[in-house]
Specification:
The chain folds into two domains: 324 residues, MFS general substrate transporter like domains (Growth Hormone, Chain: A, Up-down Bundle); 312 residues, T-fold, CATH 3.10.520. 55% of the residues lie in helices and 13% in strands. α1 packs across α9, α5 packs antiparallel against α8 and α7 packs antiparallel against α8. The chain is globular and about 85 Å long.
Length: 647
């Protein structure tokens, strides 16, 4: 009944409360339902029953998000919440009227003491295997979409299809595998399925094409179909107290789900390779299943302390995996493609996909220059990003209203240049908007909370000590956010480094913003904020192109005036999402300038933006997409033809 609260109060905290309560319910419901099934079904058919239980769960897991997407057709959460209420109430009625009274979670079926003792010896092995398996699943859930996005950029449908493929294969395989499952070989079947899944995750970590992802994703799905129902059936044999058994099993699985994404995040922060994190999850899944796989054979060989031997082997593999994963690593590069001495690289930096296109006669020169450029971009990001606890910006923010802070020379210079853009725009571009934007999901917070931070947003309250090159924020609670300029500055730094490494021409692109350099022209496309495909193609030479739009990070929220899009670009004057345009593209002689201008001009809109450009930036060009879909551009913007609606 908790989702019904949303019909009274449609605020974001209520959505969080609903999600939290449903999480608690799920944590109770799933192990309890499995415990009832384990206690009430004949042991001979238990594996098959759990197979169909797993099938139903996976079908719901696939169908739920699809149905939710359909119900979200008008950008409103109301139909989604209504659908959620309907299905929750139907489940409640089914539980009340279809299940017989007297169900319990303590089986009455007698098990020989010798058999029960033998089954219990598998319990630690199974719980260890479950933890390792779900650690890999948690890693895949968090980082597999990033891996797909890096390898299959601009192939949205294929990306979604491949991400859903493991669950889909599990659904297809369960009706075939389920009726053939037997209790007698349960430990071997569970371990084999988990090892197969782990090997699939290992393969995904090294995949580069959609065929690779399809093959290894299918292997993961088959492994899950083999291991999941048998693991539940095996757990039901450990004790007559089914509720306690399945509670412990879900605690072990939950531990893996919890620590998997955390470890994966640390790995990616260390070596910047998403594939390595996924491979690590595969190694952990395989290693954690080794004791369960080897316990039986070791016992049959007459060896004592079988649990100790098997666990020691598993721990040795796990220790090796941890050691290799956390070794400092050079930035990894995607395999370059060659076209007349043009080499292309792709990797992750600044929280987005970075692409380097380098023209040089020597491949080794290109490889080395690309590695150094990516490493430098990450180093600058770690210094400019307020989310990095040791960054210059984070140190300044923590000392707001109290102390002077001496940032790195590069960070000081960038802050100084950012404040110049603030002065030129009379505060439309204001890095102290960080007082608002450093909050999680800030663009969806209540208007009252946003207004309460208004007095903290004023670039004139940033003090610079030019002699000692120190920075201080005058008021406690103030914060800097250089997100409107830092990406462009980092791109420029990478270009200069590439030039110094002997690269004669190329493109540095990060998340759609790029700078072209060298003695040649490059063809680049401008995306439309509301349509698929490219709006226009330009020929760029020794210039940068950056854009801002309301389509990158946003939520659609309902109020008395209808559905409103709240996005990440905030107007410092109103403390609300800027709404004078839906997209801006800027061409300038540096990426830093193009980045800062794109943010500034998106907030100002064309009516105020064009006079500012003529006065202060006559050699730069800009184009706006209006809320009514019309296009407005400065007279020097190099569109090949004047499209309908251009002014």
């Amino acid at each position: 009944m908790v989702p019904l609260i949303y019909f009274v109060d449609q605020s974001l905290p209520v959505l969080y409360t609903i999600q939290f309560c449903l999480g608690l319910v799920s944590g109770l419901m799933k192990p309890l339902g499995q415990a009832v099934l384990g206690a009430s079904m004949p042991r001979e058919t238990l594996a098959r029953c759990f197979a169909f239980h797993t099938l139903a769960f996976n079908v719901a897991l696939v169908a739920g998000p699809l149905l939710g997407g359909l119900l979200y057709f008008n950008g409103s959460m109301m139909p989604v919440i209504a659908g959620l209420c309907v299905f929750m109430i139907l489940s409640m009625l089914a539980t009340a009227f279809l299940l017989p009274f007297g169900l319990h979670t303590k089986t009455t079926q007698a098990t020989p003491a010798r058999q029960e003792s033998a089954e219990r010896r598998y319990a630690p092995h199974l719980f260890l295997a479950l933890t390792g398996r779900t650690l890999g699943i948690g890693l895949a859930a968090a980082f597999y979409p990033i891996m797909l996005a890096q390898s299959l950029a601009n192939q949205g449908f294929m990306l979604g299809l491949l991400f859903a493929l493991p669950s889909f294969v599990t659904c297809l395989a369960l009706p075939i595998i389920g009726p053939r499952l037997r209790r007698g070989n349960g430990p071997f079947t569970v371990a084999a399925g988990m090892i197969v899944s782990g090997c699939g995750l290992l393969g995904i970590g090294a995949a580069t094409t959609h065929w690779d992802f399809a093959a290894y994703g299918s292997i993961m799905g088959l492994g899950a179909a083999l291991s999941a129902p048998t693991a539940m059936a095996l757990a039901s044999d450990f004790s007559r107290r089914q509720g306690a058994v399945f509670g412990m099993a879900h605690a072990a699985a939950g531990t893996g789900f919890l620590i998997g994404p955390i470890i994966g995040g640390l790995l990616i922060q260390n070596n910047y390779a998403v594939g390595t994190a996924l491979q690590f999850g595969g190694i952990v899944g395989v290693s954690a299943a080794i004791p369960l796989l080897l316990n039986g054979p070791i016992e049959r060989l007459g060896l004592t302390r079988s649990w100790t031997v098997a666990t020691a082997m598993s721990c040795a593999v796990l220790a090796t995996a941890f050691g290799m994963a956390f070794l400092p690593a050079e930035p990894t590069l995607s395999p370059p493609s060659r076209d007349e001495h043009v080499y292309r690289y792709k990797d992750v930096a600044m929280g987005t996909v970075v692409r380097l296109t380098l023209e040089t006669a020597d491949k080794n020169t290109a490889d080395e220059a690309a590695r150094k450029a990516l490493a430098a971009m990450r180093e600058s990001q770690n210094d400019y990003d307020f989310r990095q606890i040791r960054s210059s910006i984070a140190r300044i923010n923590r000392s707001a209203g109290e102390y002077w802070v001496k940032p790195t020379a590069e960070a000081y210079d960038l802050i100084e240049r950012a404040l110049l853009y603030s002065e030129v725009s009379d505060g439309a571009f204001d890095p102290t908007i960080g007082a608002l934007t450093t909050s999680p999901l800030y663009y969806a917070m209540s208007d009252a909370l946003a207004d309460s931070k208004r007095h903290l947003v004023d670039y004139r309250l940033v003090e610079l000590d030019t002699a000692d090159r120190r920075v201080r924020l005058k008021k406690k609670g103030m914060a800097l956010d250089l997100g409107g300029i830092a990406k462009g500055a980092i791109i420029d730094e990478a270009v200069e480094l590439l030039r110094s490494q002997g690269i004669r021409a190329g493109i540095v692109e990060a998340g759609g913003d790029f700078r072209c350099f060298g003695d040649r022209s490059w063809k680049v496309g401008i995306r439309h904020p509301r349509q698929r495909g490219t709006y226009a193609t330009l020929s760029i030479r020794e210039q940068a192109v950056c854009g801002s739009g309301d389509y990158q990070q946003y939520v659609d929220m309902n109020d008395e005036s209808g559905t409103q899009r709240r996005h990440h670009i905030m107007n410092p004057f109103s403390m609300r999402s800027a709404n004078r345009s839906i997209g801006v593209t800027v061409i300038a002689d540096s990426a830093e300038k193009a980045d800062a201008l794109a943010t500034m001009l998106f907030i100002l809109g064309p009516e105020e933006g064009r006079p500012l450009m003529r006065k202060f930036f006559p050699r730069s060009a800009a184009m706006w997409f209006g809320r009514d879909r019309t296009v407005t551009a400065t007279t020097n913007f190099p569109l090949p033809d004047a499209p309908a609606g251009r002014r």
